[in-house]
Amino acid sequence: MKYSLKKKRSKLIYILPISIIAGCIIVSLVVMNAFGFGKSGSDQHTADSTSVTTESGSDNVTATEQETETTAPQSEHTNPKDAKAAEELEKSSENRVYLTFDDGPSSNTDEILDILKKNNIKATFFVIKRDDPESVARLKRIYDEGHTVALHTVSHDYPLVYADMDSYKKDVDGIKSFVDSTLGINCKFYRFPGGSSNTIYKHYGIKDIHECIDYLNSIGVEYFDWNISNSDSEGKKYTPEQLAENVESFIGDTGVYNILQHDAPAKKNTVKSLQLIIDNLKAKGYTFCQITDNTKPVHHHIS
């Protein structure tokens, strides 16, 4: 009897601790399951993979955007619109002519653009601020068809433009702001009303044209004069043939020429002379270029 009791006690001694441990384990498992602990290795790997995929996806979007920026065509907001092609044409051509037109847009602009388009020629237009709908449409057409848009003046009123440096800065800033905002570009090309060698300014508040040049330099704008003119601004009534002859008589067999013409309402014969000028210069073997960031500017001698 005593032996039997001892044997039962001995079994209890072993069973009781095991039961307690087993109970603790069961309670622990229940708690961990309730609070999300103890995910299987497979579940944890899936969660980690999801996290990595999400981050990787974000990085891929950024990389794609960067690649798009790098490989995308040249920005349409360069001036001219296809600046790279224009620069390459300049580099590859030794004998070049730059057809430039001051004072537009005007009622003649569309016809000028039609002639240039027919001949597959790009030109440069030094424009005045005209903000009526028709003029704005013509300004946009100049740019959209790949020509260079350049700054001239707001008013072309000499007493107002050259009254003093404040007036001059206001005129330059006004035409630049108008062109930049209308076309979405940063226009950096400019032509003085009257040219840089004009002496008109001396009759007003500006004493030295270099003050104006210094201001242009300070805002990153380069000025361009000309070395040939068709003489359509001299007040004389030239025929289209005479205007063409005025150009041809000054052009040699080789060289680089920046030709001044005017895109103004009264310059009907300038439009009529344009095809004649183009034919003459083509016959001489000249390449027609437009002003770009790489164009060497023509500067008049300033006395």
Produce a short descriptive summary.
This protein is α/β, with parallel strands linked by helices. The protein is built from ten helices and eight strands. Strands 1, 2, 3, 6, 7 and 8 form a six-stranded parallel beta sheet that branches.
Written account of the structure:
The chain has 303 residues and is an alpha/beta fold. 50% of the residues lie in helices and 12% in strands. It has helices spanning 2-34, 41-71, 83-91, 109-118, 133-144, 158-161, 165-183, 209-218, 240-248, 268-283, and strands at 96-104, 124-128, 148-153, 189-190, 222-223, 228-229, 256-262, 287-289. Strands 1, 2, 3, 6, 7 and 8 form a 6-stranded parallel sheet that branches. Helix 7 (165-183) packs parallel to helix 8 and helix 9 (240-248) packs across helix 10 (268-283). The longest helix is centred in the first third of the chain and has 33 residues, at 2-34. It is globular, with a radius of gyration of 39 Å. The relative contact order is 0.13. Residues 1-17 and 29-73 have low confidence and may be disordered.
